[in-house]
Design brief:
The structure holds 2 protein chains of 2 kinds.
Chain A (H helix, E strand, L loop, with lengths): L1 H41 L5 H6 L6 H12 L2 H14 L1 H28 L4 H6 L4 H34 L5 H52 L4 H12 L16 H17 L4 H4 L8 H32 L2 H7 L6 H10 L5 H42 L10 H31 L6 H24 L5 H20 L26 H17 L7 H13 L5
Helix pairs in contact in A: 1-7, 1-8, 1-15, 3-8, 3-12, 4-5, 4-12, 5-10, 5-12, 5-20, 7-8, 7-15, 7-16, 7-17, 7-18, 8-12, 8-15, 8-16, 9-12, 10-17, 10-19, 12-14, 14-15, 15-16, 17-18, 17-19, 18-19
Chain B lengths: L8 H6 L4 H5 L14 H6 L3 H13 L1 H34 L1 H4 L2 E3 L2 E2 H27 L1 H15 L6
Antiparallel strand pairs in B: 1-2
Helix pairs in contact in B: 4-8, 5-7
The chains are: A mainly alpha, B mainly alpha.
Amino acid sequence: MSGTQAAAGRYLADSAGEHQGLAVVLFTVFVSVTLAITAWAGRRRSSSEEFFAGGRMFSPMENGFAIAGDYMSAASFLGISGLIALFGYDGLLYSVGFLVAWLVVLMLVAELVRNCGRYTLADVLSARMRQRPVRVAAGTSSVVVSVLYLVAQMVGAGSLVGLLIGGQGTAARTWAVIGVGALMVFYVSFGGMRATTWIQIVKTVLLISGTVMLTVMVLVRFHGNVDGLLHAAAAGSGHGDAFLAPGLKYGGSWSSRLDFISLGLALVLGTAGLPHILSRFYTVPTARSARRSVVWAIGLIGAFYLMTIVLGFGAAAVVGSDTVRSSNAAGNTAVPLLAEALGGGSGSTWGTVLFAVVGAVAFATILAVVAGITLASSASVAHDLYTALRRPAARHGRRDPAADAMEQDEVRVARFAAVGIGAVAIALSLLAQDQNIAFLVGLAFAVAASANLPALLYSLFWRRFTTRGSVWAIYGGLVPALVLVVLSPVVSGRPDALFPGVDFHLFPLENPGLVSIPLGFLAGWIGTVLSPEPADPGRYAETEVRSLTGAGAV
Amino acid sequence: MDKDDGGDPLALRVDDPWRDAGGAGLWVPEQEVPAVPPAGAAQAGAAGERGSVFLEVQDSAAFQEVRGRYRGFVFPAAAAFVAWYLLYVVLATTAPGLMGRQVAGEVNVAMAAGLAQFATTFLLTWAYVRHARLRRDRAALDLRWTLATRTGQERVR
């Protein structure tokens, strides 16, 4: 991506001045609103329930908007429509995977997790298992997933600023990454879950409004004739009808085909293991409202991805794939360029306004997503790692002064953890600034699917699952996923790799999911079979009864 | 939603976990589970005691019914949509010829299959929610009541 940054900057440089002013104004308005929300939410008493779960009294609609806000990252808004603009149908495959994943969440995870846990994934596992090892394992994998996802988003923020305001050097991108990091830490440490949720809601409304507006403009331009739009897109892409069929991006070698199947598997199974998605179910009072929030989220996310398909084909038709590619080789500027063209082209008033609006919406999107992830990972650090390593195991539901003091302690640790995670993410993002970010998102999903999902599903549905099984399932998915990435062509052996100079790639695929997800399930099974002590039937009965009835849910 | 800030009071009622119980008229305890005074259960909060209550409920016909209905819907549905999605991805990557065949106008098999994925996702969401609402929610709520009185662990808001 780095080589094209300069070209993109040059391409946009002529109109950069006008874009910059308006985009900065719009973005400042968004930041002011979110800071006001944070200040308002920060006035409340900081119990851990308030900080990690926002008081648990959000309505399903509000939580559904917030879930959609946590999920629809700039990678979807700019990345997927950009991929469609460049590769046609192969870009669409992503959006299908991202949506179908929600059925796993809806049917197997949302309600049961809401009923069994308090704040994090580890709560669900440790209800049945020995607290300490399981909390450490689940906390570690949650933090790893979150940091990978954070770095991808923040590198994206840097590139976006570079592209939108035409910053040629690295200075603008560096400051964008630092600014985004500082803001997200501020939101999370001062506003907790309540502020983060409202920021997601505002962002979702902005993102959906912007997407609806552009989609309507594309459809109006083609007089509502979808066939005409597809025809023009095929013509504008330079590929003809091949543009509308799969194969342009993933149809080459067998390893690239397998790579896509691996990515598809990771996308569809990973969502249910993402810590910042799981923690959202605790902001509503009951499992039934958790279910209804997911229904809202599926409606919003499905509509959004359908519209990104229109935008992607619209960009190919109106702007042309070659123009998009010359602006950014990954296609990330397809939607801003489409907005500009729909408004009347470069230099026109409406073109400038729409370009700035899209830029500001994309930036707001990134900011909200990173806040959600930072909150979830600081909850994992404070509620799982810190509790397990520093404190004796705490029983749920006890109300005594010591427990209250511990809650305060947890919240304080979480606030500092947010600062620490923010610092780590900023540092890693600055190091990875010139790297391709797409693989980081795919990797975060693959790690979530390999490490978190097997343990979660076994724990909810398998009577014989043991502590050793859960620890093995988590590390047995996490370690292979990370090792396979290090051995993949993303890290070495290719000109665009992290270390292009050396070649130690032994694994042909970019995405480890196809291997590491089955390994996670296998490790959990082997660990259970080899356990010294059998599973406690009473505790499984408690988990199963609670998960399906909601008895004793907080 | 934040009630202090002028939220709609109706919204709270919609999410009231006990709301469904009202429609059924007077609540009748489960016959399978012998009634135990809640105070006594709350005192005997030891893990073993609680575990045995949960084991008892797990064995009860009422709970088996709820679990059977849940698994009976969710497991086949999950197997079906995962298989359908994997079939779609594998076909898209390995059979571009088939997927590129025109159906109507510019719409080809691949495009139709992709839109069908969206459609089945929406359809299954609707079917699951309907099944849960009609076949599972009330029975689960009854069990929750039973357990609340027996273990005394339900927290009062």
